[in-house]
């Protein structure tokens, strides 16, 4: 039996990116294939769900609310390809919009399930922000596939983030489609004048080449919600 490790399932508002403020049912999967320095979602517990158990918990959580968008988040949801290939067709057949939040690295896993996904919120993991290894080739391959659906990219900006990394990210998006929404997201733990000046610098540079560049902070950090 295929099982998924899930940390929590809950209703809330989307707190990041292009769909800021949208009501969603969040399915937070446990575990990630990256170790970003700025990560603020490192759950220590999880529950294992079979396909039918996960579907039932999602349906019970949504209940009689008007929520029609399901956010697959984490951690990294694409680590659970096998169970998602069973769950997503059923959710789609019930009229739900599937919103994938991903670190934008697991291209083969995305290829297998992209037909069931409506919106892809793809992180670009800048090495100067993550303090981890660069993932430029993986990101470019991933975005080349994700562009078949509605996709936007999100870059977490920290005090240590460099313009060199921003330039590489801009060049990558420019090669694929300059109209992809390019979100600069400030690290919520470092908010202040220094970070604001860096954000404006990066936005000023990026909008010379890309059509839609935005600075969007984390709503849930501001409002104190999940």
Instruction: List the total number of helices.
Output: 8
H and E order: EEEHEHEHEHHEHEHEH
Please give the alpha-carbon distance between the first and last residues.
31 Å
What would CATH call the homologous superfamily? Aldolase class I
* Total E-strand runs: 9
Q: What is the structural class?
A: alpha/beta
Biggest sheet details:
9 strands, mixed
State mean pLDDT (0 to 100 scale).
Answer: 92
Globally, the shape reads: globular
**Major sheet strand order:** 3-1-2-4-5-6-7-8-9
CATH level 3 topology = TIM Barrel
Query: How many domain modules?
Result: 1
Low-confidence stretches: none
Binned, the helix content reads: 25-40%
Whole-angstrom Rg: 17 Å
Describe this protein with a few key phrases:
single chain, 226 residues, alpha/beta, TIM Barrel, globular
Which helices and strands appear, and what pairs or packs with what?
Blueprint lengths: L3 E10 L9 E7 L17 E3 L1 H12 L6 E5 L7 H13 L3 E6 L4 H7 L5 E5 L3 H4 L5 H11 L3 E8 L5 H14 L4 E6 L6 H14 L6 E3 L3 H5 L3
Parallel strand pairs: 2-4, 4-5, 5-6, 6-7, 7-8, 8-9
Antiparallel strand pairs: 1-2, 1-3
Question: Can you characterise this structure?
Answer:
- By secondary structure, this protein is α/β, with parallel strands linked by helices.
- It has a single domain (4-223), classed as Alpha-Beta Barrel (TIM Barrel), CATH 3.20.20.70.
- 35% of the residues lie in helices and 23% in strands.
- The chain has 8 helices and 9 strands.
- It has helices at 51-62, 81-93, 107-113, 127-130, 136-146, 163-176, 193-206, 219-223; strands at 4-13, 23-29, 47-49, 69-73, 97-102, 119-123, 150-157, 181-186, 213-215.
- A 9-stranded mixed sheet has the order 3-1-2-4-5-6-7-8-9.
- Helix 1 packs across helix 2.
- It is globular and about 50 Å long.
- The mean pLDDT is 92.
């Amino acid at each position: 039996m295929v099982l998924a490790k899930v940390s929590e399932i809950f209703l809330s508002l989307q707190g990041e990116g292009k769909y800021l403020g949208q009501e969603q049912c969040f399915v937070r999967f446990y575990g990630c294939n990256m170790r970003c320095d700025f990560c603020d979602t490192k759950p220590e517990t999880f529950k294992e769900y079979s396909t039918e158990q996960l579907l039932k918990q999602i349906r019970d959580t949504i209940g009689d609310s008007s929520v029609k968008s399901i956010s697959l988040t984490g951690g990294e949801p694409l680590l659970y390809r096998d169970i998602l290939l069973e769950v997503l067709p059923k959710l789609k057949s019930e009229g739900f919009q599937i919103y994938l939040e991903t670190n934008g690295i697991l291209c083969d896993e995305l290829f297998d399930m992209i037909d069931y996904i409506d919106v892809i919120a793809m992180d670009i993991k800048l090495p100067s922000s993550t303090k981890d290894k660069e993932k430029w080739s993986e990101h470019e391959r991933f975005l080349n596939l994700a562009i078949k659906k509605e996709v936007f990219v999100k870059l977490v900006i920290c005090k240590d983030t460099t313009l060199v990394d921003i330039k590489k990210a801009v060049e990558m998006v420019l090669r694929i489609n300059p109209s992809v929404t390019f979100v600069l997201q400030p690290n919520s733990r470092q908010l202040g004048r220094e970070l604001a000046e860096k954000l404006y610098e990066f936005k000023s540079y990026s909008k010379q080449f890309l059509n839609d560049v935005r600075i969007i902070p984390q709503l849930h950090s501001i409002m104190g919600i999940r």
